[in-house]
Amino acid sequence: MMKICCFFILLLSFQSCATKKHTHIRQWAEGIQSATEKKYRVSQNSKKLLYTKEYLFTRNGRIKYSKTNDSLGNIIQETQKRLWFVVESYPDKENYYCKTRWKPGQRERISCYTRKQFKQNEAIYQYNPDGTIAKITNRFPPFFTQFFDYKHNYLSKISIKAVNDSLIDEIQIHCINKDEKGNCLKEIRQYSKSNLQEEIDFYPKYQ
Asked: Are 80 and 89 within 8 A, CB to CB?
């Protein structure tokens, strides 16, 4: 399960490659110039920082640059938007060059390569008409699909299923606090099968 959780963190970063507006994907209000996101593992009234992610957005709500640090402050990933692709940089392996290709039916195929054109990962993103994610199918190991459910126009559940359609885990999502623009500043995620609990704190800065 830890492998799935770690890969899930990378998939959230992977969304920065998408041509859809990141603010629409994450249901954030327009006008965010930059933001900081902190994710914690919650256990017995204590919190352990998992990562800190900093975003810098373009005017149209796409990610221009992002940096992810671990709990000790070490950089574990950086992304930088170029004209036709996104560069993902890591401290311990080659850069990835991620391309997004639009497919019929509100879908995008996001593929990442090394400079030598070796494909490292690929996922199919399917969107709802409002720009939010309907599901993400990972086409590299570990193979699984995430299904996104919404309630009262807010993400309420993510179901993670294996290729044989068996349930790996289910994440219940609750927004605890919102700002005046409607952005969720504190979110609690409860994993039903692994019994994990996480907290995501969001600090936006507006234009």
From this structure: yes
Three-state SS across the chain?
Answer: CHHHHHHHHHHHHHHHHCCCCHHHHCCCCCCEEEEEEEEEEEECCEEEEEEEEEEEECCCCCEEEEEEEECCCCEEEEEEECCCCEEEECCCCCCEEEEEEEECCCEEEEEEECCCCCEEEEEEEEECCCCCEEEEEECCCCCCEEEEEEECCEEEEEEEECCCCCEEEEEEEEEEEECCCCCEEEEEEEECCCCCEEEEEEEEEEC
Give the C-alpha separation, 161 to 181, whole Å: 33
Tens-of-pLDDT digits for all 207 residues of the chain?
Answer: 444 444 444 444 444 455 677 888 888 888 899 999 999 999 988 999 999 999 999 988 889 999 999 999 999 999 999 988 999 999 999 999 999 998 888 899 999 999 878 899 999 999 998 888 999 999 988 889 999 999 988 999 999 999 999 999 999 999 999 999 999 999 999 999 988 999 999 999 998
Q: List all residues 6 or more positions away from 194 whose beta carbon is below 8 Å from its beta carbon.
A: 1, 5, 169
d(CA 185, CA 35): 11
pTM score > 0.70 for this model? yes
In sign, the C-alpha dihedral spanning 152, 55, 131, 107 is: negative
Residues whose CB is less than 8 angstroms from the CB of residue 99 and which lie 6 or more positions away in sequence, other chains included: 17, 84, 85, 110, 111, 112, 113
